[in-house]
Amino acid sequence: MSSSANLAPPQAGFGRAAWLYLVHVALLTASQAIFGLFFNFAVLAFGFSLDFLGLLTSVSFLASAAAGAPLLWMLAHIPLRTALLASSMLQLVGMLLFAAWPGRAALLLASVLLGVGAVLFELSAAPFMMRHSPAGAR
After folding, report:
1. Among candidates 124, 125, 126, 117, which has minimal Cα distance to 67?
2. What is the pTM of this model?
3. Of 27, 45, 54, 118, most Cβ neighbours within 10 A?
4. Nearest to 40 by CA among 23, 24, 27, 52
5. Closest CA to 98 of 34, 9, 35
6. With the CA atoms of 21, 26, 31 and 33 taken in that order, what torsion angle do they form, in degrees rounded to the nearest 10?
7. Distance CA 81, CA 129 (A)
């Protein structure tokens, strides 16, 4: 018998928080995919250059890199659920800012918020799921 038969994820055992988290991830992934698809087109349609589009991407990654260590420290002091909600709020505000005020400064701020929100999600997601799923499901 191969060991791959034991790798199938269990269907039972997840608590309510774990299932809500998984639904959150599915919705977040879908919204980010749609946003990412249209983001590049929209920035160019607003009349900005490819250079500015590259700057927006770079600012998002720079914000992620700069925020990583402070957010990791912060995670030791706040509940993981709060961190996930804050991550969602940062990303939502970034997307809304992008949609409502497509000016240069607002787009740069939106990129910062999206980058910080993304790194906060990445740092808090795995520990949250580990706390809210049984050992056999990990």
Report:
1. 117
2. 0.78
3. 118
4. 52
5. 35
6. 130
7. 10
Closest by Cα among 96, 123, 122 to 110: 96
Pairwise CA distance, residues 35 & 42, whole Å = 10
Quick check: 121 pLDDT over 60? yes
**Tokens standing for residue 130:** 């580990």
DSSP state of 13: -
Q: For 48-106, how does the pLDDT look when each residue is reduced to its tens digit (9 = 90+)?
A: 999 999 999 999 999 999 999 999 999 999 999 999 999 999 999 999 999 898 899 99
CB atoms within 10 A of CB 99: 13
- Indicate the SS3 state at residue 83: helix
d(CA 123, CA 48): 32
Contact by Cβ (8 Å): 118, 89 = no
Long-range CB contacts (within 8 A, 24+) of 67-71: 67/115, 67/116, 67/119, 67/120, 68/119, 68/123, 71/116, 71/119, 71/120, 71/123
